[in-house]
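hiii, so i know i said id send this last week but things got crazy w the move. better late than never?? heres the sequnce for the chain we talked about at the cafe, plus the structure i predicted for it. fair warning i was half asleep when i ran it
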Amino acid sequence: MHNAIPSYSQRGPSDLLSCRMSGCISFAISLVIAGGLLLLTGCQGVAEGNGTVAGQLAVSPTGLSFGNVVVGSSSSLNGSLSASSASVTITSASLNNGEFVLSGISLPATLAAGQPTAFTVTFTPQASGASSASLTFPSNASNSPAVQTMTGTGTAATQHTVDLTWTASTSAVGYNIYRGTVSGGPYTMINTSLDSTTAYTDSTVVSGQTYYYVATAVNSESEESGYSNQATAVIPNP
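okay and structure toks below
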């Protein structure tokens, strides 16, 4: 006859090992003693909390520099937003300076992780001098808000002029000066009264434009000659 090996299980407060960390999987281990052998049995519990990983939002570049921009004109630079770890919902955007304008992105918007989206900022200075702004993107990201800084300087427009001279015409009492933007005409007279000299300064030109000039001679009978040869002026920009 064989003696039966007694077996029993014991479970009490000291036998129950547990993990209670936020966001981890909790578990319990019971010690079952059978014939002197230790058998470990366990059960897997549920995650505490929802286990969701919050995404992060990055803006690139972190700063925009527009440099010098002529007052009244505009300069544009591009940027991008990207999410990591998880998708991110951008609720809105705000700029604290009216000389800078955001475009190219529709908000609110949800960005999938690893999928960047582009946007554009345009700087239009209204006065001479340095200007700066902050562009803020609030979102549900763990590092919200994402912020991009920007700087630019408004500069006064350069006033260009075109100086014209010509050879005097016999019997002429004065001259008219004509200007066009297409070679060969048509031309428009730009002097407000008959010019009695052989020189004229045009101070109404625009940067980046090309102008074509001709002159005519007028005698004492108010008879006007045909056009002179054409002169060309290319205005620098700015």
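btw The chain has no helices and 20 strands. thought thatd interest u
miss u guys!!
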